[in-house]
TrEMBL record:
Record organism: Marinobacter guineae
InterPro entries documented for this protein: HotDog_dom_sf, Thioestr_dom
Leader sequence residues: none
Protein name per UniProt: Thioesterase domain-containing protein
Ranges where the Thioesterase domain occurs: 5-61
Length: 111
């Protein structure tokens, strides 16, 4: 669940600057056991070009009102539909719903 959440948050963050996109690669580091009622992923774009973006993500568990970071991830997101990459396929974003904070920080809430 944590990896799925981080993967989707990274892809949505990259998609915010690239449009339709797919994850090229990503790495996740688990910091502690995931114990809590709610998981929140916060992703941001570190660097973006025309065809790819590098993004970072923090996964936070909320247990008894206390937030604890349980994982960090980083990934490269590539623009979909670029025939040079052979990525001509439809991309469906309807699986989950992203939210945006006032600071422009991306959050993906998965309950």
């Amino acid at each position: 669940m944590v990896s799925y959440l981080a993967d989707n948050a990274l892809t949505y963050a990259g998609g915010s600057v690239l449009g339709d996109s797919v994850r090229s690669e990503y790495k996740i580091n688990y910091l502690r056991p995931t114990i809590g009622e709610i998981l929140i992923a916060k992703a941001s774009v570190i660097s973006a070009g025309k065809r790819q973006a590098v993004c970072q993500c923090q996964v936070i568990a909320i247990a008894e009102g206390e937030e604890r970071m349980v994982a960090v991830a980083q990934g490269t997101i590539t623009k979909a539909g670029d025939s040079r990459d052979g990525l001509d396929f439809p991309f469906d974003r309807r699986r989950i719903r992203p939210t945006w904070g006032l600071s422009g920080q991306f959050s993906l809430n998965q309950y």
